[in-house]
Amino acid sequence: PQEPPPAAVSLTIIDQIKTNLSEKEDLSLQKTMGSGNDDVKTRSIRGVNVYGAYKSNTMTPWKNSRNEGREGDAVDKSKAKHWIDMPNDYRDKGTPDEWIPRDGRMVRLTGRHPFNCETPVAEMLKEGFFTPPNLHIIRNHGAVPKLSWETHKISIGGPLVGNPFSLGMDQLSKDFPQTEFPVTISCCGNRRKEMNMIKQTIGFNWGIGAVATCIYRGVLLRDLLIHAGLDPLDTAGRYVEFIGTEDLPNKANDVGPFSDEPWGEKCKYGTSIPLDKAMSLADEVMIAFQCNGDRLHPDRGYPCRLIIPGYIGGRMIKWLAKINVIPHETHNHYHYWDNKYLPPQITAERAAREGWWYKQEYIINELSLNSVITYPNHGETLPVHEYIDSTLTLRGYAHSGGGRPVTRVEISTTKGEWWDLAEIHRTEKPNPYGKVWCWVQWTYELDCATLTDEIWVRAWDTSNSPQPENPVWTLMGQSANHVFRIKVQVGKTTEANGKNAYKFEHPTQPGQQTGGWATKTGGKFKSAGYGPIDFDEEQ
Question: Residue 65: which region, alpha, beta or left (left: phi > 0; alpha: psi -120 to 50)?
Fold first, then answer.
């Protein structure tokens, strides 16, 4: 069938961004940022001066199943040096986001709108430790706001602020000391499809690609709060609230439990953290305006976003508009009705009826310890006669949260009876307080003569605790961090020209992609934290 024509790119916001990138400002900003010789004052700069050149945008347009693009599409770096130069993806035509150029390789998870996507595993393998911004995970709850660098303001206020003020983006980027360092951002729904294969959660099907690592540059939140008159030593019983720009549906369909701040039909996306954390030099909470040396992409928070290293992506508010210091946790709707790790017995109806959304002991803030195998990828086949007397290099990633380093990654081919150490490749340099904010890459040389029908991986961090062996199902399907398993079959395959080959099968594939051992009735987990599963039980 004939594919629709490309949508127009020349909408106001794109032109504004192009104008912002003036002749004095290189598109990559590598000439002026991260070199250690900036005109602006700096704090801890752990960017290109530590890690080398930024991993730049490598935009690739969407192609159909026949690997065909559309006439006029940029198909190589020489024709699309920056995401601004990309044609719009026709799949977004008719949505509120049709003005945004997007990388065609990203795996779309929620249809046309809102836009949620993850990095293909094959691209993860190519890129390694750092992720190009155009391949970074995107989690949007609604339409992307059309904001301008020249007009966007951030207000710093609240009842506990003695010197409230607002500032524009030029003030933010020029009037305060800058900091720059790498951060892994992951949705806590990463691996949720494995949960959905046990029993349907209320979330969509993230695979293992809802995670990425980039270098962010911005201003420490601490410096803004001190400028507003806050004492970094007087933090007890105080919180910092962050509010975004977009208007989103009220998921509770009521005014909420806070009579002084009733919820309307639409709510802003927001969260809060203790003031003590916000003031911590060790925790490096940042208001970011650059990613890998470039202005933020609209999908990823342009012109500024909150970065809380070691936290889940859902707490890092994009399109940040308000920062308030208040005497209690925020009353924001999404702080309560999103990112909760409820007990496995709690259904959606029970959660609403019994007030479980307001039990803050179940809130998810820090990332969970996790690890996966990225190579061999799902469906990979390797001829037995070529590998039986050699080794196979397994690859993957692992991360923890809260600044805790991953201390070991282990591989088992005996279904957990015996484990061997993988080699961890450490790229990130810890901050001055010994904390790390990024994943690690790992490899393991597997003797194919000892290969069995399953390969397991698990990680440990400085808490000296490993990932759990079995999954614990939860209503939102978040923080899925059980031992990651791939299954191995040996048989004749067309990929090996009819000869015997090892064939590797991951538990699931992201979104609506098919395949995976956990999608089959015989491969499903028998327990998910609350006894045997009755798949016909009423929710």
Answer: alpha
Angle among Cα 52, 56, 62 to the nearest 5 degrees reads: 155
φ, ψ at 96 (rounded to 5°):
-65, -15
The encoded tokens of residue 84 equal 């601004």
Token digits of residue 474: 């939860």
Please give the full DSSP string across 51-102, using - where no structure is assigned. H-S-----------TTS---TT---STTT-SSGGGSPPPGGGTTSTTTTS--
Residue in this structure with the two tokens 């704090």, named with its chain if needed: 43
CB 30 within 8 A of CB 121: no
| Measured distance CA(407)–CA(506) in Å, rounded | 25
> Is 123 within 8 Å of 212 (Cβ atoms)?
no
pTM recorded for the entire structure:
0.90
Per residue in 316-331, is it b (16+ CB within 10 Å) or e — as a string?
bbbbbbbbbbbeebbb
pLDDT digits (tens, 9 = 90+) for 178-237: 999 999 999 999 999 999 999 999 999 999 999 999 999 999 999 999 999 999 999 999
Burial of 92 (0-12, 13-18, 19+ CB in 10 A): buried
How many whole angstroms separate alpha carbon 113 and alpha carbon 108? Answer: 10
Q: Which range (58-67, 319-328, 416-425) has the least confidence?
A: 58-67
- Backbone φ, ψ for residue 430 (5° rounding): -60, 155
The residue among 440, 372, 368 whose CA lies nearest residue 407 is 440
Report which DSSP code applies to 416. Answer: T
pLDDT tens per residue across span 121-143: 999 999 999 999 999 999 999 99
Q: What is the spatial distance between Cα 309 and Cα 95, in angstroms, rounded to a whole number?
A: 32
Q: Please give the distance of CA 292 from its chain centroid, rounded to a whole number.
A: 15
